[in-house]
Amino acid sequence: MYxxxxxxxxxxxxxxxxxxxEKTKEAIHKVVEKGIYVVICSGRPGxxxxxxxxxxxxxxxxxxxxxxxxxxxxxxxxxxxxxxxNEEVITLWHMAEKYDVQLIMISNGxxxxxxxxxxxxxxxxxxxxxxxxxxxxxxxxxxxxxxxESIQSIKEEINLKxxxxxxxxxxxxxxxxxxxxxxxxxxxxxxxxxxxxxxxxCEYLKIDLKDSIALGDSYNDLSMFDVVGHSVAMGNAPDDxxxxxxxVTDTNNEDGVAKFLEKLNKEVL
Length: 269
Known about the structure:
By secondary structure, this protein is of the alpha/beta class. It is built from 9 helices and 14 strands. Helix 8 (about 240) links the parallel strand 13 (about 230-235) and strand 14.
């Protein structure tokens, strides 16, 4: 019997209006009531994932920063964190300056930014990056720009630095996909991934990986699909992802998560 289910947020749990439907919440709640963990697993900061998890009526464990952190908000306990080296953060900051693009650093659950954004909770870095990193561990850096060429150049430089690119605009992986702005690039420690975080959390909870399920829609979800016992892609996922998973459900705008969980609930759980 499956014991834990990992669910991505954007393009998976939420529809294109950034909503978690009541049908989805109800389906998750029924699974959790049966003693099955439902863990929200995202590239977003842990505190943000926590709020989404609470809204979705999921379990108290969350995976943030593309696997860079695992947190139990019920017990207020950090289970795992994998921060970048200070020198790596400094290098990435100066890279953003070189190409004049936005850089968002995830540190202590907050977003520290190079340029002002529309999010009032973002904090503009006012001190030297060399001073900031001394007391502020950074688990993920996100480059963002309206210029595709800038992000492509940064991607090439990061590959030379041997850092980990855990998520990026789909068109940077498959140039046949739409070029949706802004273009972005998520950078973490080498080896960080949602899949590695799943292995660590399952070990912590003493759950065999064969008893795990993952639902996602994008390329940063591939590492989840590689390690779980049952992989599920959304109907809105790229075709090359759909071809390698165990099952494809409906799209995020058609309650694909809810429909999969409802069927699973009747057949297996």
